[in-house]
Write a structure and sequence with these properties.
With about 230 residues, this protein is α/β, with parallel strands linked by helices. The protein is built from 6 helices and 10 strands, in the order βββαββααβααβαβββ.
Length: about 230
């Protein structure tokens, strides 16, 4: 749907800005993109929309929720779908290799041209996207390996890896490394009221989106967008 309209230079399209009738989204240099909303607000719907785009771009690791709404992506050759301990071990091994290759690439390119910034060089790297449907389910799945996973994801964000995750607005955030990452997010989508401790700064309750819309945050600044329904 979104590709039918003119858009900005976003790598991942999220919704349609109605006044200009243009697609809006976020770039891969954003690193972390957090989708916040209450139950039934449409978090998984948008994650499906973004996961479909990610799969078309390259390697995609999917951490599904207990509802398994992303299960149909598991058959795609670009997808690592997390189901058990074996897939978890594959993920860690793959991430180790991916991060090492990205470190070497950036070191080599920066040595060749010292005027380049690592942020600009991200565009030369292959796409690698991590989709997490429900941070709480991800935390339960990782258990004792959560800090290790969070450390890899955090480093990956600086090396061109994109992580898209959904967060339940009504649940208070803890002090894990993943929770701290969420609290620091500058890019994301707000679908409802955010609870006692908001992730993103919405000016007033009147600004909160109605059903079918969302507040798209990019570097802390938001605009209202109309959201597509995943088919």
């Amino acid at each position: 749907m979104l590709r039918e309209y003119p858009g900005d230079e976003s790598d991942y399209l999220v919704g349609l800005e109605l006044e200009s009738v243009t697609g809006r989204g976020f770039g891969r240099t954003a690193g972390l993109f957090v989708i916040v909303g209450n139950a039934g607000a449409g978090k998984t719907n948008i994650l499906r929309v973004l996961a479909e785009q990610a799969v078309l771009k390259g390697r995609t690791c999917i951490f599904d929720s207990r509802d398994m709404d992303l299960y149909h992506f598991r058959k795609d050759s670009h997808v690592l779908y997390m189901e058990g301990q074996r897939e978890k071990e594959v993920f860690f091994k793959e991430m180790d290799k991916e991060l090492e290759e990205r470190r070497k690439f950036l070191k080599k390119r920066l040595g060749e041209c010292k005027d380049l910034s690592p942020r600009k060089l991200v565009g030369e790297l292959p796409y690698y996207t991590i989709c997490i449907d429900d941070l709480d389910d991800f935390t339960e799945y990782m258990k004792g390996d959560l800090d290790r996973a969070a450390s890899m994801i955090q480093e990956g964000l600086a090396l061109g890896v994109v992580c898209i995750m959904t967060v339940h607005a009504a649940k208070s955030r803890g002090m894990s490394r993943m929770d701290r990452l969420v609290k620091q997010a500058a890019d994301g989508l707000v679908l409802s009221a955010q609870g006692v401790v908001p992730v993103f700064p919405v000016q007033s309750l009147r600004e909160l989106p109605v059903s079918g819309d969302g507040l798209l945050f990019r570097n802390g600044v938001y605009q209202r967008v109309r959201l597509p329904k995943y088919n």
